From TrEMBL, chain A:
It catalyses: 2-deoxy-D-ribose 5-phosphate = D-glyceraldehyde 3-phosphate + acetaldehyde. It is an enzyme of class 4 (lyase). One of its GO terms (cellular component) is cytoplasm. Belongs to the DeoC/FbaB aldolase family. DeoC type 2 subfamily. Gene3D superfamilies: Aldolase class I. Pathway: Carbohydrate degradation; 2-deoxy-D-ribose 1-phosphate degradation; D-glyceraldehyde 3-phosphate and acetaldehyde from 2-deoxy-alpha-D-ribose 1-phosphate: step 2/2. The keyword Iron does not apply. Its EC number is 4.1.2.4. NCBIfam families: deoC. This is Deoxyribose-phosphate aldolase.
From TrEMBL, chain B:
GO terms for molecular function: oxidoreductase activity, acting on the aldehyde or oxo group of donors, NAD or NADP as acceptor. It holds the Pfam family Aldedh. The active site is at E258. It comes from Kribbella soli. InterPro entries: Ald_DH/histidinol_DH, Ald_DH_C, Ald_DH_CS_GLU, Ald_DH_N, Aldehyde_DH_dom. Signal peptide: none annotated. SUPFAM superfamilies: ALDH-like. Belongs to the aldehyde dehydrogenase family. Keywords: Oxidoreductase. PROSITE patterns: ALDEHYDE_DEHYDR_GLU. This is Aldehyde dehydrogenase family protein. Residues 30-476 form the Aldehyde dehydrogenase domain.
Amino acid sequence: MTTLDSGVDSLADVTSSEDRLRRFLLGLPGVDQVGAEARAATLSTRSIKTTAKQYALDLAIQMIDLTTLEGQDTPGKVRALCAKAKRPDPADPTAPQVAAVCVYPDLVATAKRELQGTGINVASVATAFPSGRSSLAIKIQDTKDAVASGADEVDMVIDRGAFLSGRYAMVFDEIAAIREAAGDAHLKVILETGELVTYDNVRRASWLAMLAGADFIKTSTGKVSPAATLPVTLVMLEAVRDYHEATGLHIGVKPAGGIRTAKDAIKYLVTVNETAGPDWLDPELFRFGASSLLNDLLMQRTKLATGHYPGPDYFTLD
Amino acid sequence: MSRFEYAPAPESRAIVDIKSSYGLFVNGQFVEATDGKPFKTVSPASEEVLAEVSEAGPADVDKAVRAARKAFDKVWGPMSGKDRAKYLFRIARLIQERARELAVLESLDNGKPIRESRDVDIPLVAAHFFYYAGWADKLDYAGVGDDPQPWGVAGQVIPWNFPMLMLAWKIAPALAAGNTVVLKPAETTPLTALAFAEICQQADLPPGVVNIVTGAGRTGQALVEHPDVDKVAFTGSTAVGRAIAKSVAGTHKAVTLELGGKAANIVFEDAPIDQTIEGIVNGIFFNQGHVCCAGSRLLVQESVYDEVLARLKRRMGTLRVGDPLDKNTDIGAINSAAQLAKIRELSQIGEDEGAERWSPECELPANGYWFPPTVFTGVSQAHRIAREEIFGPVLSVLTFRTPAEAVEKANNTPFGLSAGIWTEKGSRILWMANQLRAGVVWANTFNRFDPTSPFGGYKESGYGREGGRHGLEAYLAH
Amino acid sequence: MRKTYKLYIGGAFPRSESGRSYVVNNAKGKFLANASQASRKDARDAVVAARKAFGGWHARTAYNRGQVLYRIAEVMEGRHQQFSAEVAAGEGLSISKARAVVDASIDRWVWYAGWADKLAQVVGSSNPVAGPYFDFSLPEATGVVAVLAPQDSSLLGLTSVIAPAIVSGNTVVAVSSYERPLPAVTLGEVMATSDVPGGVVNLLTGSASEIGPWLASHDDVNAIDLCGITSDDEARDLEIAAAGNLKRVRRPAEEDWSADQGLSRLTQYLELKTVWHPIGV
């Protein structure tokens, strides 16, 4: 296993050449699939009740990147989504706002207008999302467009083809270039773990993205199955924890796609709490890329408050 | 709330109906003991008295053995394997139906976390009955020759660490092979065995096929020494196992013994580190370390010692010690005051001998028997805490430099029950597995159990195997 | 020229360290030879030799161990006449019956030799556990086995108790028949000339009653075969002594040495090791 406590200097060193980067990534400790999944399964058995549940539900809402990434998206759809982001539960003003609204670059301006002054960020996917199959020049331009339109956060995809063929430096350079193009915007790097397949790859890609300047590492585009899973997120949380240990820097984690229920969201929060630690229980460092999750969180929230089970017709569909 | 503090999430006790007192289960009935005094079984988490239980004296044991003999001669022995199988399948189903109740009862009486009794113990109990049910009509294929025969009456004595699971390990293969049984549960954990007696009634198991006699060492001794017992099976300490081996000397009783251990859990520098830490934790803190195959000696390659220790301590900081019935509890109560005293004594010896003791900050409940998860560093093979079985949540950490040194240290013990290996290198795993003198070798995992998988030790960890086809052999004359 | 009958320990032929010998007569009471009378210290030395040999012997491939056992049979064949004469004299058999006993003994070595590379397949298993784990069980030698050899059947009996122990990788300290020790000594000479590493088989001539308790209580002996003990009380006491380190004990029982042997003596000295490994990518 690679010893990580030697600090930032040695980490800067690992990116000094393609060969060193490669050796560093291949030298990261392995991940045993069965063991990692067993750990995630055990964490899933935590039973979060009453006050803890209240806390978790509200926190989860505040961590949502409310997302629409469809070919059929329109300004109207995005406006509706922004309304939902601002007032998730019209019947209950105590319901917190979500963290961000996540859209395609061409709809950033619309979202930005709607969310002006709310504190809710606009996140934009970029870099030829979701496949990432275009030239670096286009990816940079895509990113610049999004930022110019007002995106506070950019969700880029890595070049999985380059990663899987071992061209780590190419992936690194591309992330670094997008990092630069994104300027002050928060950069979330989508690993598309469903295409990386192994946890060893997830760990390597996590480190690669962090070394290249990611503010967040994100599981999935939502367009590939499997999208976010708890064990994948566990492995990524271990990576940000270890990176923090080595550098003192906090990198965020965003599971995206497939998280639909409050019960699932709480399992993720438990995993955050017991893996990366309480520091990460913060929308600055943990997000859910989701849409339908929000209503389930709101329903559970209402159930806790009123003591009876609510129906979906009482929650808005936007 | 500024931090994510898990609110109490207790499993309901309402599902169990504990009687104020229990008799012995002999010949299909609960009966009063004739020559023993009743004793109390308490919840180790609160010291609350759960029930009063009868102590079986020699006369009671004799009645139970007679009932078992009669059932063997008249009913169970002559019965076809196919019909025996049906009873065992039915028992397995009943256990599944009553799984939650049994899990709560086990956690109450034993002190183990409900997560473990619910997710590990009781599912494995049912699985064992299912597995051996299927063997009952296939004994010709058990590998002990044509037309294998049961021994007759099996006297079985089980420990308190996995009360119902150990009952299943003993009773399921015995009945499948056509034996009848008299089983003595441990005196601190009799309740699930008594619940099992009810299950036998619900399954219409013929009277006398299963008899449960409660009591302490005296009862166990009477059972093991009873002249009409044909087969003795014991799980427990090496000291008692040795006494049993002596007491059956010169008889025709067949014996299997599953005794103590001091397993080495060996971590190489190329181990999958996060799963390794989980494996170390699971290896020693699972079931409060009340596990004969616990990975109580951690052998870490010197090149990664600091990192492994730092990660282990960080992980230990997230362990939740407390109410066994809370679904979020990772470490429950120590089973008895006596066991707690022993753990404390050996830990004190560890300190006195110069090892460095560490536990994470954790608040222990005021009542009941508790011991925090503890790690000793700076331990050498000469320390008593590296040699003696502590049977508690106490890990001794040693180091090694080369695979050969790891093997030498791992094998340098009179025990030989289990061992762990953590490395990503396949050929090294197989080399190590070859070299380790232990009956169960877990590579890149630890404390896994399955009814199909033979379990048992080398050397002073006992003899015979439980589980799998080999576990069946132990109950067939050959 | 008469032969001097000595012990066989660690591949060498020492006299008893005690300097003792005893008279061996034939079945009719006529003097045959003086045999070394092994002492507890000889037994101790033999256990040391057996332990030392264990690692290497048990690490050999099964194929190799099988060949070594087969070689024993071949070399015995070359000494057929000597064995026949010793069995005939000691057991009071006609020379033709003694020859048949020697043939059976050689056949027995061959039979056990063949087991070396089949045991693991017959008594091991692959275990279909309910989870993503590869799980298998393999037999492995117990370690040092003390054998108190049969008193009556001095060659076939001796062969039948040693061969099943060593074929799987155990090493043996055997105490021969007291009254009929000569075939055991000759068997030692066969061992010394048939690729059996020193210490794998150690043969002591002398009294099982005298040496047995030392072997039964020896903490570096892993198993004991009491078949040469004829007194129930003595067998019980030895079993009690053997419980000290939880030896695997084979109790004395009526045996027909000419009958086909099953697996039970083989499996008696085997441990089963179960290995688990996750299956993942």
